[in-house]
Design a protein that fits this description.
By secondary structure, this protein is an alpha+beta fold. The protein has two helices and four strands, in the order E-H-E-H-E-E.
């Protein structure tokens, strides 16, 4: 079996008014290949997104960047066996 290296897909939602950033991220997650990550760049911490991610089986890690930006890395959690 040939394992592929996971890819990181980037989405920049800076400057968009709510709820467009949330809608764009959820749309991108629907198309995210298994094993890949989505990396979102936004200028405010997307707290409402965290609850949705948790409910839908995604993990996330948020990093505060300079200039009041946030990078949110999102991935599918592997279900417990």
């Amino acid at each position: 079996m040939n394992a592929t290296t996971p890819q990181t897909h980037h989405i920049d939602v800076r400057g968009l008014e709510p709820p467009e950033p949330l809608e764009r991220v959820l749309d991108a997650l629907e198309r995210l290949p298994e094993g890949d990550h989505l990396c979102m760049l936004i200028e405010r911490e997307p707290r409402p997104l965290y609850r949705i991610l948790s409910q839908d089986g995604y993990g996330h890690a948020t990093t505060a960047l300079p200039d009041y930006l946030y990078e949110v890395r999102i991935w599918r959690r592997i279900p417990a066996a």
